[in-house]
Specification:
The protein is an alpha+beta fold. Among the domains are: about 80 residues, Orthogonal Bundle (protoporphyrinogen ix oxidase, domain 3), CATH 1.10.3110; about 55 residues, no CATH class. About 35% of the residues lie in helices and about 15% in strands. The strands form three sheets. It has a six-stranded mixed β-sheet with strand order 4-3-10-11-12-9, with no helix packed on it. A three-stranded antiparallel β-sheet has the order 1-5-2. The protein is globular. About 5% of the residues have low confidence.
Length: about 300
C-alpha cells in the first residue's frame, strides 16, 4: 500500500536550509527529516549522462580539458566562500561565467541551465546573484520528510492550533473586503471572518481577484511585470527509468524539459508494482505504481 502523499511538485531540502531545521525543532517535527545523497547526473552533448556533483566528478567530466576543469573548480570554490552577493547583482551570470569560468565551461554546463530555466529570450539577462545563490546553498545531501512533506505541514498545523490559531482548508470563493472597523475574509464554505489585518500570500493574479479593489496601484504594478512559470508533468511508470534521482537535461526544440526527476530513486515508493501504468493525477486516485517521474 502507498504510505506517502503524492506531491504536485518535487521537493527536497539542503543541509544549508537552516530555517527549515529550526522550525522543525519548534514544531516537534525534526524526527521525520531524513537526509540522503541520491545520484544526480547531467546530460552531455553526446546525450550521455554523467555525474557532476563533486570535485571528483568535475575532474572526470568528459567535455572539458584539464585546464578548463581546474579553472571552473577554482571559480566554484570562490563562489562557495563568497558572501557579498549584492555586488553580483550588477553583472549577468553569462558575463561573470565567461570571464571567470571560461567559454567552454559556460557553454557546456551553465548556459544550458540558464536557457532551460529562463528561455533563450531571458537567459542572458539573469544576474549572477541568482546563480551564486544556487551554488552557495547546494549540498550533495538532500533532505526529505518521512511520509511526504504533508506530514511536515501537519506538524506545523498542530503547533499553530495549540497556540490558538484556526486553520481553514479548501476554502471556496474567497473574498477580502474592508468595513469601517475591520477587514473581512469571506469563503463560501467557511463563512465570514473578521480581522484587524490580512496578509495575502498569493500570485499577483490571485491577489487581484481576492483583494484587488483595495490596492489598485499594487495590482497594476504587479500584473504589468513580466513573469515566468513552470510546467510539471507527473508520470507513473511500471518500470524504472534509470538508477539516478535527478537528470539535468539539455533543452532543445524536440526536448523542452529542463530535468527529469525519478523521485522513487530518492524516496521509497512503498507500494506494489502494478501491471500497467496510469495517469498520476485523477479525482480521488490513489497511486499504484512503483516509480514516479517528475518532468
Amino acid at each position: 500500500t502507498w504510505n506517502s502523499t503524492l506531491e504536485l511538485y518535487y521537493h527536497h531540502w539542503f543541509r544549508t536550509d537552516k530555517f527549515v531545521l529550526k522550525y522543525a525543532k519548534i514544531w516537534q517535527a525534526e524526527l521525520g527529516i531524513e537526509f540522503k545523497r541520491p545520484s544526480t547526473v547531467i546530460q552531455t552533448d553526446q546525450h550521455d549522462f554523467v555525474q557532476l556533483d563533486s570535485a571528483k566528478s568535475l575532474l572526470q567530466f568528459p567535455e572539458l580539458n584539464l585546464p578548463e576543469k581546474l579553472r571552473m573548480g577554482a571559480a566554484l570554490a570562490f563562489l562557495k566562500l563568497y558572501w557579498n552577493w549584492h555586488k553580483l547583482e550588477a553583472v549577468t551570470a553569462e558575463e561573470w561565467c565567461l570571464k571567470y569560468i571560461g567559454k567552454e565551461g559556460f557553454e557546456r554546463i551553465w548556459k544550458p541551465l540558464l536557457v532551460g530555466k529562463f528561455g533563450e529570450r531571458h537567459a542572458a539577462e539573469v544576474n549572477m546573484a541568482w546563480l551564486w545563490a544556487r551554488l552557495k546553498c547546494r549540498t550533495s545531501e538532500l533532505g526529505t520528510y518521512r511520509g511526504g512533506f504533508d506530514n511536515y505541514i501537519q506538524c506545523a498545523e498542530r503547533w499553530l492550533e495549540q497556540k490558538g490559531a484556526r486553520i481553514f482548508k479548501d476554502a471556496k470563493k474567497i473574498n477580502v473586503d474592508r468595513t469601517r472597523d475591520c477587514w473581512t475574509v469571506a469563503a463560501l464554505n467557511h463563512g465570514i471572518q473578521e480581522h484587524d489585518a490580512v496578509v495575502v500570500a498569493a500570485s499577483p493574479r490571485a491577489f487581484a481577484a481576492l483583494a484587488g479593489a483595495h490596492a489598485p496601484e499594487h495590482v497594476r504594478a504587479t500584473l504589468g511585470q513580466p513573469s515566468l512559470g513552470v510546467q510539471v508533468i507527473i508520470l507513473a511508470l511500471n518500470q524504472k527509468l534509470g538508477e539516478h534521482y535527478w537528470y539535468s537535461l539539455k533543452r532543445t526544440v524536440m526536448q523542452p524539459f529542463l530535468a527529469a526527476i525519478e523521485h522513487t530513486n530518492f524516496v521509497d515508493a512503498g507500494c506494489t508494482l502494478p501491471n500497467t501504468s496510469r495517469p498520476a493525477l485523477k479525482n480521488g486516485i490513489k497511486p499504484t505504481s512503483n516509480w514516479w517521474i517528475w518532468l
